Structures are given as structure tokens and as C-alpha cells.
């Protein structure tokens, strides 16, 4: 995107407004001062250049050029210095005046040049330009003081206030501005470093939590799975063997999900597993279970779970599972639409039910613990979650998940 024109001259809108107002004030100020103080130079002294109006036009052009003083202060100094030297030469040679002078005690310089001197001292930071600029400032000060004419106190005072003082003030303002910028940059750096330290502390705490959860939970669940497997082998009746097999299968699924969850917690670890042997749960089976209890569900799946990492597929499964569970609890007698779209970079899903037939209102059950847990789970893998009532009295749960979430290597006992 192309930068606006004013950005080439000013850093901030405030600086632009200030310079525009400054020029707008200086332009009428010249005629006002000329009417208050009669010039000591007769009009014919300007005849060699076409008249006094030419000098007035040149001064006004210089005043307008102050709009670029922050970017081209050295150029303005050069123009002002050249004008002063021409004025001195023409007066000394008896040719006539080149600049507008109201009183003989005025310094031989355009009065607006003081703003260019200030801008140079305050804003110019390039070394070569600063060397040239200070040479020009020295010439301006020397010419304005008129040491060869034995100037009186009033002349020296006027020359000081419109040459030396702006230069000193500009140096102070420039040094203060650079100091403030350095302090601000240091504060920003410290804030970024603090943010990085905080993130590192969070990552360390998450890794610690993952290790503790592995030590506490994984070992016990593994023992449960082994015992269920042994019971399935040694049991004599079919019902016991079936229950033991279901228990073993559920324990294995719990271990897979716990492994993925621990992997997400330890995503800052150096060990990263980009694949997982455990497939993502089947949404069709989940929908079939819901329809078996009398809730009509229409499932729409676009794409395939193979396009996303298994941990993302499981997160999507949990969102749909919890949404359907909420329908069972809070919205009996409704129909449900489940829409899931798998893509290479993200997964979009939405679960929407119609208005419930019972007296319970969905809006009154907006953010339960289940939905809060879902939000935390979705945000843990870097996704976004939304839930709330729809316009027709129903309720919708939607989420957008990233297509890939790195997980730590599978931990073993």
C-alpha cells in the first residue's frame, strides 16, 4: 500500500497540523508588522529587482516552504543563507535591498529562517547533513550579527533571539525527543521480554503438568487396561468377557486421548510427533448412538479426517459429543443438524438444534460447565469457539479448529 503524501513530510498528523497552522499564522504576520513598523529603506532601493513586491513574494515563498522544514531543513538553511549573502552584497555594493527590512536593526536574514534553524537542530540526524547544516548555521549567525559594522546592543539582541536561541532550543528539544524515544523503545523491549518470559514460564508449567498427569494417571489406566484384558481371557461367561473387552477398549481410548492431550500441553517441548497411530473417532457412530435414544440427527461431513491431524479430529469429535449431550439434557424433542467440514488448514463444525418442546429454555442454559470445558479444549489447540441461541429459538455450537496441531512424542511408562 502506497504511503500518503503527508507521511513523506511528517511523522504524525499532529506535526502536520502544527506546521500548517504555523505557516497560516506567519503569512499574514508579515504585512501586519510592515504596517506597524515603517521601513527605513525607501521603495526605490528595491527597484533593481522589480520593486518591493518581489521581495515580499520571495519571503512568502520561503514561509510556505517551512511546510517541509522537518525533512529538508538543510535545504532551507542553504536557501536562507544564500538570500542573506545576496542581501549583504547588494547593500554593500549600493545596488539595493534584496530582503524585506522594517528597521535597520533587523538582522540581515528572512525572519522565518529561525524556524528552519530550529527544525535543523531538532530533527536532522544524518551525520553528513548535520555537518553541512552547522556550517550554514554558523554563516547565518555571523551574517546576522554584522560584526564588520560595529552593531549596537539592539542588533546583537535581535540576532541572538532569531539565530542562536532557535539553534540551542532545537538541540535541547531534539535531545529530549531522542531520550524519550530511547526510553520508550527500552520499555517496549522490556515488555516484550517480560511477555516471552511469561510464555516460557507457562510452557514450563504446562510441561510440568503433562509430566505429573502422565505419572499419576497413565500408570493407573494402563494397569486397568491390563487387568481388563486378563479378565477377558480368564472369564468363563460371555457377558463378563464382553464387559471386560469394552472396559479394555475404553481404557485404550482414554490412553490415546490422554496422550494427545499431554502432547498439546507439551507442544513447546523439542520432541514433536507429527503423526499419531490412533485414528480420530467416528462421528457416524456418535450420531447413531444419539439417534438410538430418539433424537433425529442429520450429519453432513465434507472432506476427510485424514486431512487433519488426529488430535484435531478428536477435538472436533469432543465438540460434537458435548453438543449432542447438551441436546439430550436441555432440549428434548428437537432435531439436530451436525455440519463438519475438513480442510487442509482448518476444520469448521457446527451443531444446531431446533426449538425444544419442553418448558426449558435454551437461553437459560447458555454457558454451562460443559460448554466452558469445550471452549478451553478448543482454545488449547489454537481454535475459536462460539455457542449461543439462534433466532428461531434453537441453540448452536460452532468451532473452527486448525488443521494441524503438533504434539509431543507418545510417552511411555
UniProtKB/TrEMBL annotation:
Enzyme Commission no: 2.7.13.3
Reactions catalysed, as given in the entry: ATP + protein L-histidine = ADP + protein N-phospho-L-histidine
Chain ranges of the Signal transduction histidine kinase subgroup 3 dimerisation and phosphoacceptor domain: 205-269
Residue span(s) of domain Histidine kinase/HSP90-like ATPase: 314-402
Keyword tRNA processing: no
Transmembrane segments: 16-37, 49-68, 75-101, 107-124, 131-149, 155-175
UniProt xrefs under InterPro entries: HATPase_C_sf, HATPase_dom, Sensor_HK_TwoCompSys, Sig_transdc_His_kin_sub3_dim/P
GO cellular component: membrane
Keyword Magnesium: no
Keyword entries, A-Z: ATP-binding, Kinase, Membrane, Nucleotide-binding, Phosphoprotein, Transferase, Transmembrane, Transmembrane helix, Two-component regulatory system
Pfam family, one: HisKA_3
A molecular-function term among this protein's GO annotations: phosphorelay sensor kinase activity
Protein name: histidine kinase
Taxonomic placement: Bacteria, Bacillati, Actinomycetota, Actinomycetes, Pseudonocardiales
Amino acid at each position: 500500500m502506497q504511503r500518503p503524501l503527508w507521511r513523506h513530510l511528517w511523522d504524525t498528523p499532529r506535526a502536520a497540523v502544527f506546521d500548517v497552522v504555523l505557516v497560516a499564522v506567519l503569512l499574514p504576520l508579515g504585512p501586519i508588522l510592515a504596517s506597524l513598523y515603517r521601513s527605513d529603506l525607501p521603495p526605490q532601493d528595491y527597484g533593481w529587482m522589480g520593486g518591493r513586491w518581489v521581495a515580499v513574494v520571495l519571503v512568502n515563498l520561503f514561509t510556505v516552504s517551512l511546510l517541509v522544514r522537518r525533512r529538508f531543513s538543510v535545504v532551507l538553511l542553504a536557501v536562507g543563507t544564500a538570500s542573506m549573502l545576496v542581501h549583504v552584497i547588494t547593500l554593500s555594493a549600493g545596488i539595493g535591498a534584496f530582503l524585506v527590512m522594517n528597521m535597520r536593526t533587523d538582522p540581515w536574514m528572512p525572519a522565518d529562517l529561525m524556524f528552519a534553524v530550529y527544525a535543523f537542530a531538532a530533527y536532522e540526524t544524518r551525520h553528513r547533513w548535520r555537518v553541512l547544516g552547522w556550517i550554514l548555521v554558523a554563516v547565518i549567525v555571523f551574517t546576522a550579527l554584522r560584526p564588520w559594522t560595529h552593531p549596537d546592543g539592539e542588533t546583537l539582541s535581535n540576532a541572538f533571539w532569531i539565530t542562536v536561541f532557535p539553534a540551542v532550543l532545537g538541540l535541547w528539544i531534539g535531545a529530549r525527543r531522542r531520550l524519550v524515544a530511547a526510553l520508550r523503545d527500552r520499555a517496549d523491549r522490556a515488555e516484550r521480554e517480560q511477555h516471552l518470559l511469561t510464555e516460557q514460564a507457562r510452557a514450563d508449567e504446562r510441561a510440568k503438568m503433562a509430566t505429573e498427569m502422565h505419572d499419576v494417571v497413565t500408570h493407573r489406566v494402563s494397569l486397568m487396561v491390563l487387568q481388563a484384558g486378563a479378565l477377558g481371557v480368564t472369564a468363563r461367561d460371555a457377558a463378563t468377557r464382553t464387559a471386560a473387552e469394552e472396559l479394555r477398549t475404553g481404557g485404550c481410548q482414554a490412553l490415546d486421548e490422554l496422550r494427545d492431550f499431554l502432547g498439546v500441553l507439551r507442544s513447546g517441548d523439542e520432541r514433536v510427533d507429527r503423526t499419531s497411530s490412533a485414528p480420530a473417532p467416528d462421528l457416524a457412530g456418535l450420531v447413531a448412538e444419539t439417534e438410538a435414544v430418539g433424537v433425529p440427527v442429520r450429519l453432513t461431513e465434507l472432506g476427510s479426517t485424514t486431512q487433519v491431524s488426529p488430535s484435531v479430529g478428536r477435538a472436533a469429535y469432543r465438540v460434537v459429543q458435548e453438543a449432542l449431550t447438551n441436546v439430550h439434557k436441555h432440549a428434548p424433542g428437537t432435531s439436530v443438524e451436525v455440519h463438519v467440514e475438513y480442510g487442509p488448514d482448518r476444520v469448521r463444525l457446527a451443531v444446531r438444534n431446533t426449538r425444544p418442546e419442553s418448558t426449558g429454555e435454551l437461553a437459560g442454559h447458555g454457558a454451562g460447565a460443559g460448554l466452558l470445558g469445550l471452549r478451553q479444549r478448543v482454545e488449547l489447540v489454537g481454535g475459536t469457539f462460539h455457542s449461543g441461541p439462534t433466532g428461531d429459538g434453537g441453540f448452536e455450537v460452532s468451532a473452527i479448529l486448525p488443521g494441524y496441531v503438533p504434539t509431543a512424542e507418545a510417552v511411555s511408562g
